[in-house]
Amino acid sequence: MSNAIAQIVDAYVRLKNRRGLDELMMHRQRLAVDLKSRSGAYDFSLPISKIDEEIAIIEEGLSRLKAEATDTGTTRPI
Questions:
Q1: CB crowding 22-53: b at 16 or more within 10 Å, else e
Q2: How many beta carbons lie within 10 A of that of residue 5, not counting itself?
Q3: Whole-angstrom Cα distance, residue 17 to residue 63?
Q4: Separation of alpha carbons 76 and 50, rounded Å
Q5: CA–CA distance, 2 with 50 (Å, rounded to integer)
Q6: How far apart are CA 60 and CA 18, in angstroms?
Q7: Phi-psi region of 17 (alpha: psi -120 to 50; beta: other; left: phi over 0)
C-alpha cells in the first residue's frame, strides 16, 4: 500500500495540489487515532505501522511541495 500512497503523493506534488495532500494527511491521521484507541482481542500494530509509514510519505510530499513553492518564489493559498 505504501507504494500506492507514494504514487498518489507524487501526483499531488506534480499537480501542486496542497489541498489533496492535506486531506489525505487528515484522513490517515484520523485512521491512526481510531486504530490506536482500540483494544481487545485483535492486534492492530501492523495496520498502525502501515498508517504511520503512509503519514511519513505524505509529510515528505508536503515538504517537497513547500520546497518547490519556496524555490520558485510563489506561494499558494491553503
A1: eebbeebeebbeebeeeeeeeeeeeebebbee
A2: 20
A3: 13
A4: 30
A5: 7
A6: 12
A7: beta
30: Cα within 13 Å, side-chain hemisphere = 6
- Lookup: cell for 60: 515528505
Nearest alpha carbon to residue 45 among 54, 35, 55, 53: 35
Note down pLDDT in tens along the chain; length 78 residues.
579 999 999 999 999 999 999 999 999 999 999 999 998 889 999 999 999 999 999 999 999 999 988 877 765 555
CA angle centred on 49, ends 4 and 34, rounded to 5°: 95
pLDDT tens readout for residues 6-17: 999 999 999 999
Please tell me the distance from the alpha carbon of residue 18 to that of residue 62, in angstroms, as a whole number: 7
